Amino acid sequence: MDRAEMSNWLEVRSIGRLIFSLTLGVLLVGNPGVSNAQLSPVQLSMQYEAKAALLASAAETEQSLSLYRKAWDSYPQDHIIFAMLKVPTGTNPPGEHINFLQDIRAQITNQAVVKAIDNYLAAVLPSFQMRHAGIEVFVYPPSARVVAMHGDTTTRITRGSPLWVKPGVVTIEAVSSGYQVTRQTVDVRAGVVKKVRMGLTPTGPRGSLDVDSKPAGARVYLNGVDMGDAPVQALSLPEGDYVVSAVLPGHKNVRSSARVAKQSKTNITLNLTGIQAAKSTRQQAGVAAASYLPEDTDTTNDQRIEFAPVGSTPNVMRSRGSGGNAMRTGGWLIMGTGVILLAGGGGLTYLANKLITEANAIDIIDPVSEAEYDDLAAQSATYQNYSFIAYGVGAAATIGGLLMVVLSPDSPSPTNFQLSPIPGGAILTTGGEF
Q1: Which of 79, 150, 271, 349 has the fewest CB atoms below 10 angstroms from its CB?
Q2: Where do the domains of the chain lie?
Q3: How far apart are CA 35 and CA 40, in angstroms?
């Protein structure tokens, strides 16, 4: 194909693409004879996406982002988020857009999408926060529905991330079955995240709970629900038993139980200890061996004599001869070590299985129980890895030692030595073959 033919082919292909795009646009943007109620969630999502893309190209960014959010509500798909993140918003994206991205981040399992959202927020939040105020609400019970009313707008507040609003007075309302409706008015300022703690008052018998920590400032969880940093004061709760946990970086997590009685106040302080490098207090014990060889001893024949302290009875010793005996003895030692390693591998496997069983029995309700599960699972995996190493090395040592014993050459009988004490010294008597 020459250059002219190639040019004609590219022109035809471009025209084909244009016709396809126009047809798709007519189908997606709307057919007068088809209402939204007749469209499936997928079709409705595609229609919203098509309209959002057209508006984004026309620099109508807020309307475009609103349509992308509707597309996600109709049919949540990762590519919708990627398309939304490409909408040029400069350094002034609408607050609803930021709130939406923060809310859905926890729903997404695709780590590529999560990373894209994080990168986007990291780029826009610094300047965005200078013009907006943040509200973070910690509420009990966790089933409460929390909304923020600012001006003519009412916005749902999601746990775990701040809601961004325009600076000014905001009324927060929390509603839950079995509890009284609770409202709290706060004045929020630009560039500041206001933390609000709300404990709804139960309609039945109730008491109050105060939680503090030492050191101060630990993150407090009530039955696994994040209640913010300590101290947590005057928390109105139905009477009953509760699990209170505290988490502080650089300290061991701590968990305790608390009973709230009717018309009474319960105070609990959680003491957290700092994490230090484990130091062993055990002292290593050594056994001193009395082995002596004069510096001018001839060791060319590998005949080594070991002397022991002279006692009241004769000491019988045997030299470590060369050749087959040494090889055979080494083989037995290596084979014995291999058997010990195999047994150790079995013990490690037993411990690994026991730890993972304990981990699976944990009811994960808060970061403390989650950390306990992770610790047990990590210990189990470590023991399992060590057991594999023990099995491999033990098997190799057993087989190698057995071969050394079987293949060792015959050697003369070892030389025996008898050391008999006498006044002022000792007599060394030898026997056997040299």
Answers
A1: 79
A2: 24-131, 133-201, 204-274, 324-410
A3: 11
How far apart CA 124 and CA 92 sit, in angstroms, is: 8
HEC profile for 186-243? EEECCCCEEEEEEECCECCCEEEEEEEEECCCCEEEECCEEEEECCEEEEEEECEEEE
Query: Residue 428 in 3-state DSSP?
Result: strand
User: What pLDDT digit, counting tens, does each position of 41-85 carry?
Assistant: 888 888 888 888 888 888 888 888 888 888 888 888 888 899 988
CATH assignment of 133-201? Answer: 2.60.40.1120
In order of 42, 54, 68, 86, 108, the CA distances from 76 in angstroms are 9, 20, 10, 17, 10
Question: What is the third-level CATH fold of 204-274?
Answer: Immunoglobulin-like (2.60.40)
User: Can you tell me whether residue 307 is helix, strand or coil?
Assistant: coil
DSSP state, residue 251:
B
Pairs from 239-243 (Cβ < 8 Å, separation ≥ 24):
239/205, 239/206, 239/207, 242/209, 243/365, 243/366
Kindly report whether the peptide bond that precedes residue 215 is cis, defined as omega within 30 degrees of 0: yes
Type of residue found at 316: V
pLDDT digits (tens, 9 = 90+) for 323-380: 567 777 888 888 889 889 889 888 888 988 888 888 788 877 777 777 788 888 888 8
Domains 133-201 and 204-274 in one fold = yes
The CA distance from 200 to 117, in Å, is 33
